[in-house]
Amino acid sequence: MPPNSISRVRVTRVPGGEDGDVVAVEEPLEIRIGGVPVAVTMRTPGHDEELALGFCLSEGLSPLGARVPDDLGVNAIDVEAPGADIGALQRNFYTSSSCGVCGKGALEAVAVEAARVESELTVQASLVSVCPERLRSGQTAFEATGGLHATGLFSAEGELLCVREDVGRHNALDKVIGRAFLDGRLPLTDAILCVSGRLSFELVQKAAVAGCPLLVAVGAPSSLAVELAADRGITLCGFVRNGSLNVYTEPWRIEA
């Protein structure tokens, strides 16, 4: 569990009286490009470089790296992304922990270009069905607070390669994508992404940018998430729990 990701607070339990509790930390992170602020996202501290990289990748940029800024600014990360249109970024970017696309300057800014995912990956339904359980086993901060989303990156054989947690479901996925970028794993053509909540349009968009052919969730997809997954060639699995799952798009990748 990253340091500073949880905080202790006082709580009055009914019944039970005054007691202590542990909650997830939520703080702003300013993302800069070449020293210029372009976006702010509310996130749980930890793996901030990965978050900034994943965010920029998901927005169609080609970052080279990320680091703490020269002024050592608290809650800030500077991304190296040559050729980025700073003015356009400042107009279009603003994210929050509840919905990563809220506050966009224009609806068309949401539609990041992502090539159709070309992958011959197929997996057993039994393997997909255990991904959420395996993800849960790595959610240490959720275990302590009950207040964090998570994304897990799995190999085609079902090995859990990376887990990231955050108050924002899109942030958790950005952190995983950023880690995969740093590890030289992109595109994720032979991998599985599993998220702990519902499937929104933006999560499918990020999976498409990362080149991942299979996106799994314990919750339900939205209509736009299903449309985008079908358009981008992504297999979308929802309600993955208790040994069962619903396959909404590209069902040929799931073997019974």
**Spans of 5+ residues with little confidence (pLDDT < 50)?**
103-109
Number of helices: 7
Helicity level: 25-40%
Distance between the termini: 36 Å
Assign an overall shape. globular
Report the portion of residues in β strands. 25-35%
Q: Would you tell me the overall average pLDDT?
A: 88
| Sheet having the most strands | 6 strands, mixed
* Order of the strands making up the biggest sheet: 9-8-10-11-12-13
The count of strands amounts to: 14
Radius of gyration: 18 Å
Class by helix and strand content?
Answer: alpha/beta
Compressed to H and E, one letter per element, the order equals EEEEHEEHEHHEEHEHEHEEE
Compact description:
27% of the residues lie in helices and 31% in strands. It is an alpha/beta fold. β8 and β9 (160-166) form a beta hairpin.
Helices and strands in order, then pairings?
Elements: E1 6-13, E2 17-24, E3 27-33, E4 36-43, H1 48-58, E5 65-67, E6 76-80, H2 86-92, E7 123-124, H3 125-137, H4 140-145, E8 149-155, E9 160-166, H5 169-182, E10 191-195, H6 201-209, E11 214-217, H7 223-232, E12 235-241, E13 244-249, E14 254-255
Parallel strand pairs: 3-6, 7-14, 10-11, 11-12
Antiparallel strand pairs: 1-2, 3-4, 5-6, 8-9, 8-10, 12-13
What this model shows, in words?
The chain is of the alpha/beta class and 256 residues long. It is built from seven helices and 14 strands. It has helices spanning 48-58, 86-92, 125-137, 140-145, 169-182, 201-209, 223-232; strands at residues 6-13, 17-24, 27-33, 36-43, 65-67, 76-80, 123-124, 149-155, 160-166, 191-195, 214-217, 235-241, 244-249, 254-255. A six-stranded mixed beta sheet has the order 9-8-10-11-12-13, sandwiched between helices. Strands 4-3-6-5 form a four-stranded mixed beta sheet. Helix 1 (48-58) packs across helix 5 (169-182), helix 5 (169-182) packs parallel to helix 6 and helix 6 runs parallel beside helix 7 (223-232). Mean pLDDT is 88; it is low at 103-109.
